[in-house]
Design goal:
Distance between the termini of chain A: 5 Å
Structural class of chain A: alpha/beta
Order of helices and strands of chain A: EHEHEEEHEEH
Strand content of chain B: 15-25%
CATH architecture of chain A: 3-Layer(aba) Sandwich
Oligomer: heterodimer
Radius of gyration of chain B: 53 Å
Number of helices of chain B: 13
Helix content of chain A: 25-40%
Number of strands of chain A: 7
Shape of chain A: globular
Radius of gyration of chain A: 13 Å
Distance between the termini of chain B: 149 Å
Strand content of chain A: 15-25%
CATH topology of the largest domain in chain B: Beta-Lactamase
Structural class of chain B: alpha+beta
Strand order of the largest sheet of chain A: 2-1-3-6-7
Number of domains of chain A: 1
Amino acid sequence: MKTLAALKVLVVEDEALVSMLVEDMLGDLGCEVVGPAAEIEEALRLAGSAEIDAALLDVNLGGRPIFPVADALKARGVPFAFASGYGEAGLTEPHKGSPVLQKPFREADLRRVLEGLAAQVV
Amino acid sequence: MTVLEADAVSATEEIADLRRRLAEAQAAHTDEVRRNQAFSRIAAAIGAHQSLGETVQAVIDGGVELIGAQFGAFFYNVVDKAGESYMLYGLAGAPPEAFADFPMPRKTAIFAPTFDGVGVVRSDDILADPRYGLSGPYKGMPEGHLPVRSYLAAPVKTVDGLVLGGLFFGHREPGRFDARAETVIVGLAAQAAVAIEWSRAGEAGDRELTERRRTEERLKFALDSGRLGSWELDVETRAYDASDICKSNYGRTSDETFGFDDLVATIHASDRERMLAAMDEAIRTGGDYDIEYRVVIPSGETRWVHARGRAAVRDETPVIGGGVRRMAGVSLDITERKRAEERQRLLLNELNHRVKNTLVTVQSMAAQTLRAADDLPAFREAFEARLIALSQTHNLLTEQNWESASLREIVDAELEAFAGRERLDFDYARDLRLNPKATVAIGMAVHELATNAAKYGALSTPEGRVTVAWAIEPPEAPARLVLRWTERGGPAVTTPSRRGFGARLLEKGLAGELSGVVRLAYDQSGLGCAMTLPLAALEP
């Protein structure tokens, strides 16, 4: 169990303005931002090898689904949450049940989700 | 005269008498044969189930022949489709024109017993009959009527007593019809009644058959034009009968066999159980069967079918075990509708995604603007300008069905709000079309550059100018767009002490989003911005 302070969070988000918002929010919460990754290859590379505690994934990355990145994180045991305009409806079957941040979200929503993820970090 | 002579005379007379009796017997026999032949012709005509007119004609012809009449007629009532009763007639021994100009016979004293079904009227000389000539306007036969003296008429009525019409026979000489003729005609009238009833029943049957065929044709036309297939299922034997269109809904041609097992097998494995359960339920309760399911047709293609059915409601349908014996229904290929629904669902999801993303973008702009703003009026001005800049790029995309926008138009749209449009120089070989994501990103970047130029840079003084230049470099893959924003003639530039929203958006946000490099150069002569972006991230 980790606290949010110094929690290393991988951000995968392909829209500049949105990733800037998330970065600012994470900064306010005391987290350290890894990325943000705007494309799937970069995201896969970071998910596979970067030093991270948790991840926040935009479901739709320039028209490509994020799920390979989610699978890679799962394999590594890194907890993650999705950020999506679709809500849970946009998730494929194996990922239903993962935490989802419905866009747009407040800093308090992000904090709650991150605390849930941090609780899973051993 | 001797005894011998007397004997001879007697013998001669006897021979003559015998000859006469033989001739009489021969004539009677011939007459009998002729009458039998006439009867059998009538019987054959009746048995042949001909039309009413033909049957009636056979009866009149036979009657004339049997009693040696000169004229024969049969007047009978028919009822048309509108329920109106009118009279038709058949003639023998005279052309049809013989009665054409006369009105139909009415119930005069002569005719009434016939048309009322009271009995036979036989007269050796009708002109001498006390009942003759009593009714106006003709007071007897009208001018031009067949010259009838001997008269014999019999009603034609059913066993129930319903009068169908009357048989009439005549001869121009008096005393022609004897009691034997009357008996023959009474028998003939009875046969005629049976024949007419048969003929009417046959015609009614034909009409019903024709009507049923028409109804079936109409139903088939309606089914065909609606591409509706029809089917019927024997619940007990599972015998399944499908129309050609129904078969085609399941990917079968009309000459292929398609039984109940084939139907079940062709239904998508995931939908099969649901279909069987729905059918069982309908059979058990006698309720409606109404289901949409996927079918995998022999070509391997998956299609959608809407099937509806109901227990066949027929009097002879026995109910077994609380269920029904037969089901009948229709099937419709709804693949296109399902695909349209799927497209609509995807579009709606896509729209929701865009709207939500735009809201986050606006949320981010508000948060970023607030961080840099000195006071609320400054926040409002900057925030509104950014909101409008975002809206401009959306307008360009909407015009192009959200597929792409031209780089030149993006720059023009973002600079529209600023006074210094005429102080803008363009330098490029060809315009470029950008995908929606790049359109929004570059549109916002140009907005930040223009806002900065208008506030602090070249567009804040009357003399300053801005050059926007772009080129594709290198020409071979992977090609990149190199876009340069160069300000000249404005106030002297100094590197800012803190990086504002614009600089962050350009150098980090835009570069990250489009996988490129963006450099701001705070040259003293004017601000410069160089964007090097891979074409792959920009193209639609």
